[in-house]
Amino acid sequence: MGLLVTELRLADFRSFERMSVHLSPGITILVGPNAAGKTNTVEALQLLTAGQSFRRPTPAQLVREGAESARIDARLEGDGRVVDVRCDAAAGRRQFSRNGKRVQASEMPESLMSVLFTPDDLAIVKRGASVRRDELDDFGRQANRGYANVLNAYQRSVEQRNRLLKDEDVNLSLLAAWDASVALGGATLLAARLRLFSRLAEKVSAIYGTVSGGERLRCSYVCTLGEGLEGLSREELRDVFLERLAEVQEDDLRRGQTTVGPHRDDIAFSIEGRDARSYGSQGQQRSVALALKMAEVELSYEILGSRPLLLLDDVMSELDAARRDAAMGFVGSGIQTVITTTNLGYFSPEILEAAEVVRFGE
Hints:
alpha/beta, six-stranded antiparallel sheet, 10 helices, 43% helix, 23% strand
């Protein structure tokens, strides 16, 4: 079964002076008007599971106005275990701990990871490539701490190379050394990304077919290093990367930035052979987003052997009845889920009877 969140406690976090909420092992619905603190509660849960927030806040932004520091903590229970996780924040500092022992943010998903679905995610097909890359990388970070280390090392190498490219008189010998570093780090990241994407894409396509009534979805990884890279070893990918860096060196020097590599790659979706970004209806694009989130839940279970915490922040109002039914049917399959909403009318009487309903702003 894995761990479940049984209680969340907040102190001087965002809009809350003090707040405590008990969560159901099934569905917990947070209902109330806008600006009542529902999304802040979801953010707190994401911080304690993913080790980061979708809002990408500074530590100071987590602290209630007028307070010096904030604390969020939760109790996780399951499989005969009790785990207490905590995050303390103050100006310029954010610290995580598990059972009283300090841990890195990247270690938080090892207790319980989470999948977050927000209204912004519904437009993932239409938004920029960086959004789709981040979606894949954020999932990879939680599913495997080594992924986060590889990603961070590659990003630092690219930043250093870009600084060198901006020099008026570039040392080409030094550039060659950074080319080697970027190529090795990029090849390591790309190999991990392609393995993860292959597993995820298969599930996204299958789930989309169910949600859409049989339409065929194809997910493709669009790599700036070229095509046909699946199955290559890290060393082979490194050699391909070095060749591409040599080919675009003049352009990179002119632009002052590294123009090829995993940091420039994209993910494409096609429905019945047509590009979903250009030709997909809004409903089809939203079905892709819904299928992607469902696939992340399924794949996390395969990788970690336990189900993640599913966080649905105000997405019910953005989905039509058919997609709401699909989402709730998936949620009802035994996944601990926290849903925020302003309207309980989106849920059937059966769901409301089984759920823990927490009212905000009363």
